[in-house]
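Section 5.1 Outputs to date
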Amino acid sequence: MTTKAHLSKIMIACICLLFSVSSFAQPLEQQIDTYISTQYTSDTPGVSVLVAKNGKAIYSNAFGIANLETGLKADPKNVFEIGSITKQFTAVAILMLVEQGKLSVDDNITKYIPDYPTQGKTITVHHLLNHTSGIQSYTGMARFKTLARTDMTPTALIDTFKNEPMEFDPGTQFKYNNSGYILLGHIIEVISGTSYENFIQANIFDTVGMTNSYYGSMAKLIPNRARGYSETETGYRNADYLSLTLPYAAGSIMSTTSDLLKWQNAISANTLIKRNTLENAINGSTLTSGEVISYGYGWIKGDLNGSATVEHSGGIFGYSSNGIYLPEEDVYVIGLTNCDCGNVGDIVSNVAAMVIGKPFAKKEDAITLSDAQLRTWVGAYTFDGGVVRHITLKDNQLYSQREGSTNLEIYPMTATNFIFDGGATTYDFSTENGNRMATMTANGTAMTGTEIDKAPPAERKELTLDTALLQTYIGSYELQPGFNLVISVRDNTLYGVATGQGELELFAEAKDKFFLKAIVANIDFTRNAEGAVESLTLFQGGQVMLAKKTD
């Protein structure tokens, strides 16, 4: 449910927004088709993409497969779970109630939830809307995975996180938080006297004419539903089951690209809320320190190659989504996929950039630099929040690795400007007062890191263990009640799958000692006196978790 700059000056002469839609629609359609079809093929889960200019669709197409088991091709009519784009609907519902005089964003949440333990803090509706409440996000708690199959009422869901310690004082920090939107959904129900589902249906879907949009359900028959998938290192699998009572007002809506265009048009036309009310939602917000953040109420203020954007993305078991609106150009691009893999945000950003005549650079456009030029920027850079990124060079290729993440190629556009694959995230290197600097730009937000003296993470050497030894690790290990790590062997390779998560490969560095590459984690197996494996210990993020073998 989750929550996510774009740099390129390349212009394509045949695309110009001064032309009429009819004069450039065909070449633009071909460009978009070519671009998306290289990433979504006849054997992958699907994607549905719509582009609108001045409120009218100028492109709508789908690629890939809506149901891998039946081979049903993806179609623009497919219904997808939109994940956290749901937050826009929840925010607008709250703002509708504000305009009706039924609440204020400055109200303390205890006005509507009297028994909520605020731990001596003043938490307002505003803090819930812009993710500055300090309340812990329930989706980040390990036990969330154990509840995935459980239908829960909003109040029961709130009970799972309300007594957790606050992470910071309200208004002092921004931290994306699904719990806040669960509370907002409950407040809507308290004030309106009806369920969140009924409120959204009557006041938004019916008003706007979104006839193919739903409050999600795993039980109801949803016409044209695209089945959700996850990707593993060995292929795709059906996504884990998630009761849609759990994402609730933070992520349970299902829709189509054409219905979401109706939604965007209603927002642009001030059909649901007044313009001055919308301005508070789309223009970011401010912390108590005076620091401006890009998140407003259900929208993120961004930038696409110099053009202002308001946007949001979504991720949920089996699905991903991203929508961008460019107000100056009056262009809307929405992308929905039936896999919680890949990066539909890059697809949408690249398509939007094509439409406004500011396409991103591509790695194919990279120039060749000498070893000395590339080596100029090798080193470690520290960013806000203690984030360290290492720039390394191997076989004439520069890589960027955030500590705790994977190593990714970066490609030179100039001697100082480098892009990641897709072009939407960039590095600009420079020297200031003798110190090297690295400015990373993503989604319109620039972050500058300063050179520090720190060695990159050592490349770990992996061993090959025989199949008989690997098979001794097979089994299910309980990290906590209802949350297991299942170990399996396939093609002389060890894999692990945690409840509700995708499959990851484990690499041996010694007998009974393994590490992961996709995430920073180690797993050590422990044997009993007879030599049989009886438990494992997971080392991740500073935590040490013992898991007994149960099967």
